[in-house]
DNA sequence: AGCTCCAGCCATACGCTGTATGGATACGCT
DNA sequence: AGCGTATCCATACAGCGTATGGCTGGAGCT
């Protein structure tokens, strides 16, 4: 079952994912090529294809690995405002841990299943916030878009230059409060009963 | 000055931009290649480089052409809410006119100068909305991120399947109202004087 | 008229990409 | 002993952006 490889140990999927993530962190997803990855692993490029279907599957795997790190806030008794803050914070932390990978995620939203995990928690919170039932789904999509839009822009800028973490955090605070106040007002949902 | 070309007329930058936009509308920016574009124009690939520095410059040109279509709402006396709606609407219309090109714009924000046009109008409106001076800049960036995030998601989904334009417009209405209510509340800006 | 200049166009080539195809190797199992 | 199979590798193909350099033929000048 084992073939004498030019390196010691045979390849493993985890090792592939880990090195791919390293390369992406260093140079972005567009700097990742199967050949460079193979070189990094001291392996023939084609060997990768025995562990991974193709490059997009590889990238999906790496993204899934990162997403699985997301720690969703539990449904404790805290007010919905705090729970929403916690959820946004968890998402933002994830993005900040691997900004370049997250750029890829933003550009390929299909790798993250919004129906799962995150989406459910978000809908629960919106329900608690008094959003009318028929608008919970749409509002969930909207807030997801707002947060991803903000975090995308933030991580992008952050890669370029460092404008002072204080300003950034203040911006983040303003953004969150805008959303909370908008939700709390209830003015967004009263077109017809 | 003119060389017998394999087609009749010599190439022009406008013609290049127009056909590039057509190809992008049809298959997205990633389906645009210099060779395909040249074939479409019945010209040798290298001929393009006498009118365009390279591919990214070409894409920037096409984007700029689209962006120049943006009709910024004038500073009439209307309340800031309506002006903000108008601005968002203008932006959204632009994206909907060329969704696939806009996907590229979202993924390469550097092609659009936020300091210019759009940004100035947005800051003016926020000022009228009573946003404290020191937070106008940050809030402008935030709203820009919110709107682009929403429009990006919307145009993306819209490319996949057609979930009914009514739902989409209702979502858009909710999103706008969320922002307006959040701004109107003033709760986002009272950390310290 | 003859000259140069050069804008516009094209042919060739290089290094890069993802991956289809098929062959080599070496272990576990019967 | 021999087979199945998991893993790895060599070669090759089509496509990409573009560097380099050569051709052509009108414009402008002497």
From TrEMBL, chains A, B:
* Keyword flag Chloroplast: no
| TM ranges | none
Q: Which UniProt keywords apply?
A: DNA-binding, Transcription, Transcription regulation
Which residue intervals define the domain HTH tetR-type in the entry?
10-70
Binding region for DNA = 33-52
What Gene3D superfamilies does this protein's entry cite? Tetracycline Repressor, domain 2
Gene Ontology terms for molecular function: DNA-binding transcription factor activity; transcription cis-regulatory region binding
PROSITE patterns for this protein: HTH_TETR_2 (PS50977)
Pfam families given for it? TetR_C_33, TetR_N
- Name-wise, this protein is AcrR family transcriptional regulator
């Amino acid at each position: 079952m084992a073939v004498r490889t030019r390196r010691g140990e045979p390849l493993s999927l985890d090792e592939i994912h880990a090195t791919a993530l390293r390369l992406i962190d260093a140079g972005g997803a567009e700097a990742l090529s199967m050949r460079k990855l193979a070189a990094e692993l001291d392996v023939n490029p084609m060997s990768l294809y025995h562990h991974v279907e193709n490059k997009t599957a590889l990238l999906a795997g790496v993204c899934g690995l990162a997403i699985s790190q997301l720690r969703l806030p539990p449904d404790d008794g805290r007010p919905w405002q705090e729970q929403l803050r916690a959820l946004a914070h968890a998402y933002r932390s994830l993005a900040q841990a691997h900004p370049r990978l997250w750029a890829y995620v933003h550009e390929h939203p299909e790798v993250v299943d919004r129906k799962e995990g995150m989406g459910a928690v978000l809908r629960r919170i919106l329900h608690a916030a008094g959003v009318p039932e028929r608008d919970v789904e749409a509002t969930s999509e909207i807030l997801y878009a707002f947060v991803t839009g903000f975090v995308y822009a933030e991580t992008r800028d952050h890669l370029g230059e460092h404008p002072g973490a204080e300003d950034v955090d203040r911006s983040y605070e303003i953004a969150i409060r805008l959303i909370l106040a908008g939700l709390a007002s209830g003015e967004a949902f009263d077109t017809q009963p």
